[in-house]
Amino acid sequence: MLKCRGQGDTEIGRQGDTAKRSAALLPRVSASPCLRVMFGLIMALCLLLVAGCRQDMQDQPRMKPFRLSTFFRDGISSRPPVAGTVPRGYLRADREFFTGKKSGAPSGTSAPSAMAPQAAPNQQAAPATPAVAAGTTAAQGVSAYPDDVDTFPLPVTQELISRGKERYEIFCSTCHGLTGYGDGMVVRRGLRRAASFHADNLRQAPVGHFFDAITNGWGAMPSYASQIPAKDRWAIIAYIRALQLSQQNVEAATTPQPASPAATPQTGGHTKR
What we know:
Elements: H1 15-25, H2 33-52, H3 95-99, H4 130-143, H5 158-171, H6 173-176, H7 185-188, H8 200-203, H9 207-216, H10 230-254
Helix pairs in contact: 5-10, 9-10
């Protein structure tokens, strides 16, 4: 059935169509040039701020060593370690291995003469025999360094001695020589002569004395603690002991023996007048 719209009838449309017609009837307002310029400046400023947040490695915020800092109360940028803390791998619990000193040994050096027997007054001292003299020398060598260990704190193996030979030729032979007589290359060039490991005082010295000398220096010899690890120091000392034993046998074989006094010839018969 068809319905016809009369002349006076009004059209009832949808709600959306009415909103579109209202929006189409509103006048359009164009943005002013000032607003556009301001909006562009704000966008450019935001881009600059975003680019400024980038931090390269060479421009990272950090404290430079020995540089003044106002952040800390004392004004020092380098902070000291916390009391009681130990870096990993630096515990050093084994005192004999890392220092060459006896655990709980009293400090100080006792005089060598304190251990030697004293002669009574008005009594003539008996001449010392070679055996007694050697024992006295050994006692004095050990007693001169009472805090130093006299035994190796690790097993002495062939691998340890080989390692010590390699390290000795790198760090020690330039002054002490390849055989340990103190005639290294720098000595031949006119510098001060180094100590000989074959002297009696160093033959009788405990192994801890050599470790202390390598660690802290001795006389004109500087410290090698920063260049030679603790295990390599003991390896060098083991090789020094091997050098001392080898050269001791050579010296004993080449030392001339004192000649025995010739026997007085006996003459027989009567004496001729």
